[in-house]
Amino acid sequence: MSMCGSASPADGQVPELRKAILMTYYGTLDDSARAVSSDALTDRVRRAFPGVEVREAFTSRATAAAMRRQTGRVHPLVTTALQQLEADGYNSVIVVSGELLQGKTTRIMEQQIDTMRYRFFEVKTTTPLLYTPDDCRKVMPLLVQAAQVDDGEQCVFVTRGKNGADDAVLCLADYVLQHEGYANCHVGTAEGYPSMQDVRQLLLQSGSKRVVLMPLMMVGGGHAKRTVGKAWRETLEAEGYSVRALTSGVLDVPAIQQIIIDKIKEADQQP
User: Fold this and answer.
1) In a 10 Å sphere around its CB, with 0-12 CB exposed, 13-18 middle and 19+ buried, how is residue 179 labelled?
2) Ranges assigned E (strand) in the chain
């Protein structure tokens, strides 16, 4: 999601810009998880960009619908949020990716943005959290620090994985850990590569029986708790490991929130 574009006025004059930032998140029904992740990030963005309208949208239709049914709280989808911004007179929008990887969700969102782009003078977008090698070099050490991994522990950052092109970035994140001083830290996936079996072999080779599990997921909601707190933890404990399972999401880390704010600032400076 690195696109930017504008619709020039017919007379060639640059209009007065009314700026908005649209934060996009997959969404979660877990109020406590959302409070320390996406809600906290949106609040920080509002403080970092005074005078700019900041709104939220969900990328998951199912999550948005479930939240409305269960709580009455309305989170529009991306297209609806953009339509409302246009109706309210905003003509310059930065759409912020709240995704970990450039996957199916971001590709669908790109298509939605493209259908709305002509309605604004300019639409800019940010890339997902892990998009470039530099992103991985910035993010992964911060997650090691957040997990408070000591020298006697092996740490596994667990994410879903999809056995597709997205997994290549996960392999890159793992490579960064191995080659930048965090050889006791690994990336593992529930459904892709590196698999749980791959990680178990590395743990066996390490000789350590102490493991830290941390979700490599933006929000530590129900999926993180089921995957990390149950599936991976129970498997490793059955094999004799002492497991410290964390359930906080990546967005819980204030330094990660700052990286996303920096991405917004970079997008804002694009011509």
Assistant:
1) exposed
2) 4-6, 19-25, 53-58, 92-96, 122-125, 154-159, 185-189, 210-215, 242-245
The total number of residues shown for the chain amounts to 271
27 in Cβ contact with 149 (< 8 Å): no
The pTM assigned to this predicted structure is 0.91
Count each helix (H run) and each strand (E run) in the chain, helices first.
Answer: 11, 9
In this prediction, residue 114 has a pLDDT band, given cuts at 50, 70 and 90, of very high
* C-alpha–C-alpha distance, residues 7 and 94, integer Å: 14
Contacts of 112 (CB under 8 A, 6+ apart): 77, 78, 79, 82
Q: Which residue type is seen at 121?
A: F
pLDDT at 3: 45
In which order are the strands placed within the sheet that holds 92-96? 4-6, 122-125, 92-96, 19-25, 53-58
CA distance linking residue 221 with residue 215, whole number of Å: 10
91 phi/psi in degrees, rounded to 5: -120, 0
Residue 219 has pLDDT above 80, yes or no: yes
pLDDT at 11 over 70: no
